[in-house]
């Protein structure tokens, strides 16, 4: 790509922002040197990498962490150099980052093929991480455990240091009046004491230094010289041993230097791709659809797929809260767009927006546009924007522009994007317009995609009458005398000079005189353009209003679906709870039937009636165990039907027949055998229009039975979580007594997992309990280790 164009379109600023998202120096260098590619395949691959990275970051906080550019250290190690502790820690951090990234993308080749392939090229640790961890602390200190010899040396140093300090401390105590301060310090690596100058010679010592004033001498008493020598010798041995240890690990790094350097390059590329994804997320950008140039040179006006199509395009360097998005969506076959409008109206920004987004897309960066935007993959991009005058070369503004345009025209072809700002300006308007028209004609002959900003009315007429060229304008608000920065394709811009002058207070006679000088046809054309613009704006506002209403309806629809989903979940939860209670009731019925059978056997009575009850109970149990299915909007079964007490109905959810014993506004109480259940009216189906008369005596008996089964039952589970052991056991004891009296066959005791102390206390209390026959750990769906199921000693 043309380097001058990159600077004109402010592409380096984009790269600098991208570098800010990189985590280490190697990837920052890659970001700052990133250039757009003219290869369609490479540009597509780069965009796909960025898309993959955004998907990865959405589900996993992946990154290079504390990685560093370790290539210089690897080179030094390869040349048998000894790495310092910080360099080794950098290598360790980099290899750990590589390992974490490989782990994150492991077995995700199908989901993230490009990033997974890049992760495979990251280096293995080859034991380097473990070796560095073994010898260095996180602060870069060589550990005592790095070698047996080093540990022994440091123990000796500690002992020698203690003896030396003890001996010097004695001098501090015995000769305190002779010392400037009672402290022990160092000079040239040897421990000394600060002797006052007037007591020089009073202590036999070696003088190592003196203060700036000469009042203090730093001396080493002769009796501690040997101790200092011993200390110094041990420290030198320690230094040599540390160096040997570092050299050993450095040699291991040197063995794999080539792989490490290659891995850092891949890690830098991974970090750059992740940086692109982070930048795209912050920019709220989307991946554009790239189009490949097919065939050779094409004429303007031919229907082709290489036109620019940008929706809600934003300039990436302007804050989102101030930038005005533009739409660049010319009809197929358009090869040139001529933009007109007032100064400071946004023409240059619009040109730069298109050019910069093209460069970003071909660099693999997602661009701030609406999803579905399309761009051709240009082989070259050229721009002439700004003041090109040069004092050194004695070039005027016009000459500077023409010189740059000549250079560009020599290099373009049908695969180029050409951007000219104020084409033909800086000279006589008539000649400038003629040159601008001739250059635009030449560009059309080459089939290059062209964007031109101009003030010349002749180019508006040229665009209107030439195939493949379209007018565009930037709107200006006459009421506020400010540009709106909205780009409109299909309409040329107006100068609005007379209106602006009139608004600013230019005398009306002068305005009328000026208007008389203008061709009436031009005035009518301006009036027509103004009417068209107003109608287009009105249509646009109506479209925006309809779009907002559509979005609002979609949001309401989503909200309704969520609410229906929540209602359905509540319905299923209620049925599941009812099923659990049903299981309990069935278990109680089984116990009662077994008891009744044994009594009938003792009385030598036939069991025919009991068998019929057992068959009904088995059918009821099958219905209770049936899975709870999600309803899909069934009509109400008893909708708009009047129920009466005593009527026979079928409970849909249980598929069981019963008698209505009580009625509410939205539900009813139904007696099924000896069990009473509450059901919604929508879950009931009338079986007969004739009311069933229930004798008062039977009703009373039934109520007593229902009360025995339901009202006195403490429920099938007790929750002990959050209680101290003694309080929990007291609560469990009261619950077990009620459960036993209610005839519950089994209960669930919820104690939670935690440390296991409460679980142990509960099971100790259950072991040998008078009301409990056996107990076991809850199943996976019941809470596992956090629940104990106790079988009651009943029947």
Summarize the structure.
With 795 residues, the protein is an alpha/beta fold. The protein contains 22 helices and 23 strands.
Helix content: 40-55%
Query: Biggest sheet: strands side by side, in what order?
Result: 10-11-12-8-13-14
Structural class: alpha/beta
Low-confidence stretches: 298-305, 388-394, 632-640, 689-711
Q: How many strands in all?
A: 23
Distance between the termini: 91 Å
Q: Tell me, rounded to a whole number, the average pLDDT.
A: 82
Sum up the overall morphology in one term. flat
Question: What proportion strand?
Answer: 15-25%
Radius of gyration: 45 Å
Number of helices: 22
Main sheet attributes: strand count, strand direction, barrel closure:
6 strands, mixed
Question: How do the helices and strands line up, and which of them pair or pack?
Answer:
Elements: H1 3-8, H2 11-19, H3 25-32, H4 40-59, H5 71-78, H6 85-105, H7 113-120, H8 128-135, H9 148-174, E1 185-187, E2 190-196, E3 205-210, E4 216-221, H10 225-255, H11 257-283, E5 289-291, E6 310-313, E7 326-328, E8 336-340, H12 347-361, E9 374-376, E10 380-384, H13 397-409, E11 416-421, H14 429-446, E12 449-453, H15 457-465, E13 469-477, E14 482-489, H16 497-504, H17 508-517, H18 520-602, H19 608-625, E15 648-651, E16 656-663, E17 667-672, E18 675-680, E19 684-686, H20 696-711, E20 717-719, H21 725-742, E21 746-750, H22 757-766, E22 772-777, E23 787-792
Parallel strand pairs: 5-9, 8-12, 8-13, 10-11, 11-12, 20-21
Antiparallel strand pairs: 1-2, 2-4, 3-4, 6-7, 13-14, 15-16, 15-19, 16-17, 17-18, 21-23, 22-23
